[in-house]
Amino acid sequence: MISSRENLLRTLRCGNPEWIPVCPHLFPNENPTKGIPEELRDVFLSSSSRDILKLGEYFGAEDYLIPVDSPAYLVSDTCAFESKKIGPGKEVTTLRTPGGKLRQVAETMEGYPGMVTERFVKTVDDARLLAGYFTSLRVEPDPGAVKETRELKGLLGDKGVLFLRTNGTPLGMCYRVYSDLTNLVYMIADAPEVIGDLFARMEEKYFQLYEASLRAAPEIDAYMGMDDTSTTLISPAMFDSFNAGLTDRRADLCHAHGKIYMHHSCGLIRNLLPIYRKTRMDGVDAFTPPPIGDVGYADGRKLLGPGFSMISGLGGGLRSMDEHEIRRHVKDRFEDARAAGNVVFCFGGAHLTFAGMKLLFDESRKVKHLQ
User: Fold this and answer.
1) Residue 276, pLDDT score
2) SS3 assignment, position 306
3) Tell me, what's the pLDDT at 156?
4) Which of 153, 187, 189, 268 could form a disulfide with 219 if both were Cys (CB 3.0 to 4.6 A apart)?
5) Is the distance from CB of 42 to CB of 138 less than 8 angstroms?
6) Residue 208 and residue 174: Cα distance in Å, rounded?
7) Using one digit for the tens of pLDDT, what is the confidence trace for 83-111?
8) How far apart are CA 164 and CA 204, in angstroms?
9) Residues 6+ positions from 144 with CB-CB distance below 8 Å
10) What is the pTM of this model?
């Protein structure tokens, strides 16, 4: 029998795994809150990489996808972010550049998560300022992150792989972080040269960060571009135009170092998969089947072709915490995953109770080794 690490790598690289990996998953503010055992409360609150290992040990997991911090980061010597509260639940962040200021506003209502109500880039002039900010960035190594990655590698052993969540594409980072979608689309149409220049400067720095990370921490097995790509926000043609080429460039760089490149694409992706098929990415992270997404694993395989793996949340789309519903859900998900091949499951999520999370895992253990 092969190791869990080898089985997971075979799955991600579209080889011939011996079972479907099922990995514990924790993420800040996205974890179960009901029925947590006292000895795991700090684990669920922290959600660190070491806590994922502790949770897996508690459940008896054999497969692990463990996130690590970036071994390098981008820093500017001429630009700076400043934040201040301007009232109850309201915070303004200012990005000061030599050419001017950009402003973002975030608001929080009691009992609800915070949300950004005004983003940095609202005009073409703002886009020019953001391009200047990216030009000013340089890569700075993080020895502490490298040390922690090496320690995690030792703790993990042959039970799984380490991965790094990286910046998304410039288009994705703009509609997720720097601008709102409406303003961004207007600027793409009205000032394509300015936005093209901004995207080029952003990707230049993101690529430099990839290069530095690959050199600094060879212990990292996989890189995930965190783009949140979905046709709720962009069209397949937009991805093809702005992202396909740079996706290949990132994938080629990772492959040259013997690493895996995954594209994080949660949401509605059926019509994006034929575009992904043309790229050299290794697979889709956060593949979201119905009822939340719009394509299942087997149907997705037909659109993607044989050379792409899928990482998916096992609990996504679960209709209730009823025991019979959980068992049915696990059965259906694994049947679809077997039909597709090369699917990795992660179990977790804020919609679950702890009891539901445990039953989800227990049921998956019964079927993950079935052929």
Assistant:
1) 98
2) coil
3) 98
4) 153
5) no
6) 19
7) 999 988 999 999 999 999 999 999 998 87
8) 19
9) none
10) 0.96
d(CA 348, CA 353): 9
Question: What is the per-residue pLDDT for 142?
Answer: 98
Q: Exposed (0-12), middle (13-18) or buried (19+): which is 6, by Cβ within 10 Å?
A: middle
Cβ-contact 66, 156 below 8 angstroms: yes
Structure token digits, residue 270: 């059926």
Tens digit of each residue's pLDDT (9 = 90 or more) over 311-322: 999 999 999 999
Neighbours of 148 (CB within 10 A): 18
β-pair partners for 262: 224, 283
Structure tokens at 57: 């040990």
Q: In the beta sheet, which residues pair with residue 103?
A: 94
HSE-up of residue 349 (Cα within 13 Å, Cβ side): 19
Task: State the residue for tokens 């594209």.
Answer: 263
Burial group, residue 16, by CB count within 10 angstroms (0-12, 13-18, 19+)? exposed
Q: How many residues does the chain have?
A: 371
Q: What number of CA atoms fall less than 13 Å from residue 31's CA on the CB side?
A: 21
Other residues' Cβ atoms within 10 Å of the Cβ of residue 317: 16
Q: Strand 222-226 relative to strand 160-167: parallel, antiparallel, unpaired?
A: parallel
Type of residue found at 145: A
Please, which residues have CB within 8 angstroms of residue 322's CB and are 6 or more apart in sequence? Answer: none
C-alpha–C-alpha distance, residues 255 and 354, integer Å: 38
- pLDDT tens profile 21-75: 999 999 988 999 999 999 999 999 999 999 999 999 999 999 999 999 999 999 9
